Amino acid sequence: MLLFGYAFMYVPLFCIIALSFNDSRFVTAWSHFSFKWYKALAQNSIMLDAALNSLKIACCTATISVLIGTLAAIAIVRVKRFKGKPFFVGMIAAPLIMPDVVVGLSLLLLFVSMTNLLGWPGEHGILTVTIAHITLSLSYVTAVIQSRLTEMDSSIEEAALDLGATPVKVFFAITIPSISSAIMSGWILSFVLSFDDVVLASFVSGPQSTTLPMVVFSSIRMGLSPQINAMTTIIVSILTVCVAIAGYVIYHSGKKISNKPRQEKKRWQGLM
User: Fold this and answer.
1) Are the C-beta atoms of residues 17 and 236 closer than 8 Å to each other?
2) Domain total in the chain
3) Domain interval for residue 97
């Protein structure tokens, strides 16, 4: 059943990758090997501009979501005297359970009202799409980092504070390295959520901020183009390399953290 489940997910993806090298204009009929559709994709300015917009939005969304989500997770887990914690946690988790259509419509009404009252953000564009994606991604990032902080032993931080370290130094020297794997996982998750979103972007985007999923979704209505297969292959290849690098870094960072107590123990035994 496990093999069947993986085959159900990955066999169609491998078929898309194989058909991206097909010379035929029919996406399901194999003719012969060719890079024809990659050359056509390189000349498709609409799809390339949309891919660049999606990349910009996803990078900004992931970075800002990680920064805010890390602080939010620390406030939830580490701050003991936080009277409004239940309300704060509920507001952070709300986008997880609310439909994307509801979130997109509410953000659209918010931006329209703010433009009428304050004159900001004005026209809908990359800024409004980024804010919408941060609203969604922040919940996931906070949940990932919060779970890691809950498992982390807070006595290490308390010991550093007792020995004279400042809270800022403890945060950057102990807390951040200990949750670095969760931060990287949250960044990747936020990037993928933003790059893949089509519902929120459809509500808050403008003419000059069309994202790649919106272009693909609109082009499917007119019929499948083999250029979509070529774009899919490129995206899957890039993401596979990025995930492999991230997995390597997370594995070795976790291995270093787990080996630190053993190294300290050996060092103290040698001194004794």
Assistant:
1) yes
2) 1
3) 49-222
Tokens of 123: 């026209």
Q: Which amino acid is at 49?
A: D
Q: For the segment 180-216, what is each residue's pLDDT rounded down to a tens digit? A: 889 988 998 999 999 989 999 999 998 888 999 999 8
Is 13 inside a domain boundary? no
Partners of 272 in the β-ladder: none
Assigned token pair, 83: 């009277």
Looking at residue 80, its pLDDT comes to 79
pLDDT of residue 224: 76
Residue 152 sits in a domain whose CATH number is 1.10.3720.10
Instruction: Go through 27-65 and write b for each residue having 16 or more CB atoms within 10 A of its CB, e for each that does not.
Output: beeeeeeeebbbeebeebeebeebbebbbebbbbbbebb
Task: Report pLDDT for 85.
Answer: 87
